[in-house]
Amino acid sequence: MNNTDQTVPHVLKKLARLLGTQLKNTRLDIPPQFGSGYCTGFVFNEHIRMLISNYELNEDVIIQNPDVNPAKKMIFFKFQNIFSRAETSSPHKCPSVLIGTSRINTDDIISIHTNTATINIEVDANYLKGLFTGSQESSVLKGLLQNKRPLLFEQIMYPSLQKNVDEILSGPANETFKLFFLRVKAEELICRLLMELENRDEKQLHALNNHDIQAIYRVKQQILEHLETPPVIKELALDAHMSPTKLKRLFRQIFGDSIFSYYQQFRMQEAALLLSEDKLSVSAVGYRLGFTNLSHFSRIFKAHIGMNPKHYSLRKSN
């Protein structure tokens, strides 16, 4: 077995065999009869691995996951909406990363979905724990590193983190340094994301199950699809089949923000897009997003975007 074989995730080799094709320098190009796009992966060492997927398949593929090791407690980082695509300009599709413990998904069966545009990084929790000095005061950080309960967090990707992701996607010009470069960039991303999570003020974490996670994400989708209507907690809780207290608690735990604050953030991002991309007037945007008082809309917009909507619109048109 050569060095290249050792640095390619087994799941990628298995997918290549299933599709009847060969890997070329750790890259799997999807054969035209099965779809389009590519998938590439790297095993940096026994503690950390990465899979980059940007493809569309004609149908889902189910395979056994040969990389599952129950003895290891892995933490996953799943980056979504991070590829540059015109159709993902909507704030509903803004770049984000899911961070969770391996106990969220312990199945040894993987469904390779038809449409995937993600980067997945998996790292051994004990390896990460060994990189920190002193005790971790943050309950979020402690909960992740201990990896004893199913936990999931979502973090919005701000521009400097997206720049780091873009460097991973473009890779180094020199093949000699490729594996080293990508490992350093992956670990930098992980470090910066953990620093973000440490800033969250959650005092107590609650173990999650798949039912609760699905319910919370249905609530999130409902909020984002109706940005013109402020969320009503009681109604959302009823739809989620949980108490308002539990809904608010789990939503904040996953997204690091209250339901209304989260809604307002995306509402203003949508307003910014309508002003800059669709070239709508300030009043048209305000009314479309459910504001009856345009002065109130201007104040909220400025608080989130940093300038009032009229100045923002003028700046983007120049």
From TrEMBL:
Does the keyword section mention Transcription regulation? Answer: yes
Protein name in the entry: AraC family transcriptional regulator
Please name the Pfam families in this protein's record. HTH_18 (PF12833)
GO molecular function terms attached to this record: DNA-binding transcription factor activity; sequence-specific DNA binding
Per UniProt, which keywords does this protein have? Answer: DNA-binding, Transcription, Transcription regulation
- Write down the InterPro entries for this protein, in alphabetical order: Homeodomain-like_sf, HTH_AraC, HTH_AraC-typ_CS, PchR_regulatory_protein, Tscrpt_reg_AraC-type_HTH
- What Gene3D superfamilies does the database record attribute to this sequence? Homeodomain-like
Q: Does the keyword Nuclease apply?
A: no
Q: Which species is this record about?
A: Pedobacter sp. KACC 23697
All residue ranges annotated as the HTH araC/xylS-type domain in the record: 217-315
